[in-house]
Amino acid sequence: MSRVSLAEGIYWVGAIDWNLRDFHGYHTSRGTTYNSYLIVDEKVALVDTVKAPFFPEMLGNIKEIIDPGKIDYIITNHVEIDHSGSLPLMVKESGRAKVVSTQKGKEGLKKYYAADWPSLVVKTGDKIDLGKRSLEFIEAPMLHWPDSMFTYIRQEELLLPNDGFGQHLATTGRFDDETEVAMEEAAKYYANILMPFSSLITRMLNKIKDMDLKIKMIAPSHGVIWRSEPGRIIEAYTKWAAGETEKKILIIYDTMWESTDIMARAILKGVMDAGGEAKIFHLRRNEWSDILKEVLDAEAVLVGSPTLHNGLFPPVAGFLTYLKSLKPKGKIGAAFGSYGWSGGAVKKINEELKTAGMEVIETDLSFQYRPDKEELNRCYEFGKEVAIKVKMK
Ligand code: FEO
Fold first, then answer.
1. pLDDT tens digits, residue range 4-13?
2. Could you tell me the domains of the chain?
3. Hey, whose CA ends up nearest to atom 1 of ligand 1?
4. What tens digit of pLDDT does each residue of 83-101 get?
5. Of 101, 128, 144, 247, which has the highest C-beta tally within 10 A?
């Protein structure tokens, strides 16, 4: 593999996971990368490692540049095993490197690997001098684990924020100007991994401004490196963290015998006839992580379910559990559904949407067996009503 250089003496030495399609439930349709960075100065530092099966790939990349025995520090920005999985082998290979982490990171590594490595615990503002360059650390608790931290190289204006600003994206190019889909995948990543921590992200973005960190390049631990316009991804994070929305309505549903499906389509027609923008998702025909990417900037989320055994249809129940956990901000929610002999789904959806923090429009769109003409007209009119409400917001 030819060397990938970010600046003089700073290299990408990670691994590309082209065939990954499931990252703990997140559908990674374009694979991912595990990015490690090698900084060769008077002292040598490796920032993050890779998922365990990719250790030989990372080691091969390092060996093309330097003898691994020369590594002085292994910076562990985050304990999660897609980044620390190779750490036991890397520590052994390097022979003398110190593992640098936050206190929570040290505790996490001990629990995962039961190892007693030479270590150095750092806090915000601490620095390690490498020679011409130094590494500065910024603790980033709950972005997205308690142990998380960012590493910054002031002399290069380079931020290494681990999962922050990442994308699950495998490409031949390592930089954002070598792909068309970096921002799309960054939005999906934000929605599925970082959205619950939006208020902390706003705080971190303000902290970066207060610390007057100049940023020429952002090198996350997944996907491509933001070198063309790092300001563009910071701007996008600012917008997503604030919960800014587009005038977009999502109709998300599942169906047993097509009655809820027919209702969903009548609502969609109402939205379209009122000039609104909508997208419709059947929960067993779409990946939930793709739907969440759409939820990120949607103004309204309408959820439909048949009633099964007095409750929700299981795919809808599962989706709502996932949606709630991601705490989407500032959205209108509403429910619709069908039933056989007793309703219940609509009431349960409303409860879940309220728990998710949505402003719920209470509806009476719960119809027995097959919705008739009058009932479908009520769905249609509701679609129009939501479209007008979203336009006026
Ligand atoms: Fe990429 Fe939180 O691990």
1. 999 999 999 9
2. 4-242 (3.60.15.10), 250-388 (3.40.50.360)
3. 163
4. 999 999 999 999 999 999 9
5. 101
Can you say whether the dihedral through the CA atoms of 76, 82, 87, 90 is positive or negative? negative
Question: For residue 284, with 0-12 CB atoms within 10 Å meaning exposed, 13-18 middle and 19 or more buried, which class applies?
Answer: exposed
Catalytic residue list contains 82: yes
The alpha carbon of 193 and the centre of ligand 1 are apart by a number of angstroms equal to: 9
Residue with CA at minimum distance from ligand 1 atom 2 = 80
C-alpha distances (whole Å) from 3 to each of 18, 212, 217, 332 are: 19, 31, 18, 49
Q: What is the pLDDT of residue 201?
A: 97
Question: What whole-number distance in Å separates Cα of residue 383 and Cα of residue 378?
Answer: 9
pLDDT of 393: 82
Given a cut of 50, the residues of the chain with pLDDT beneath it are none
d(CA 225, CA 37): 11
Burial of 247 (0-12, 13-18, 19+ CB in 10 A): middle
Question: How far is ligand 1, taken at its centre, from the CA of residue 268, in Å?
Answer: 37
| Residue tagged active-site, from 17, 41, 82, 287 | 82
Q: Is 110 exposed, middle or buried (0-12, 13-18, 19+ CB in 10 A)?
A: middle
Q: What is the mean pLDDT of the chain?
A: 97
Residue whose tokens read 């994206």: 169
Burial class (CB in 10 A: 0-12, 13-18, 19+), 104: middle
Distance set, CA 205 to CA 76, 193, 198, 230, 382 (Å) = 21, 17, 10, 13, 39
User: Measuring CA to CA, how many Å separate 297 from each of 188, 190, 286, 294?
Assistant: 11, 11, 18, 6
Q: DSSP letter at 170?
A: -
Alpha-carbon gap, residue 74 to 119, rounded angstroms: 9
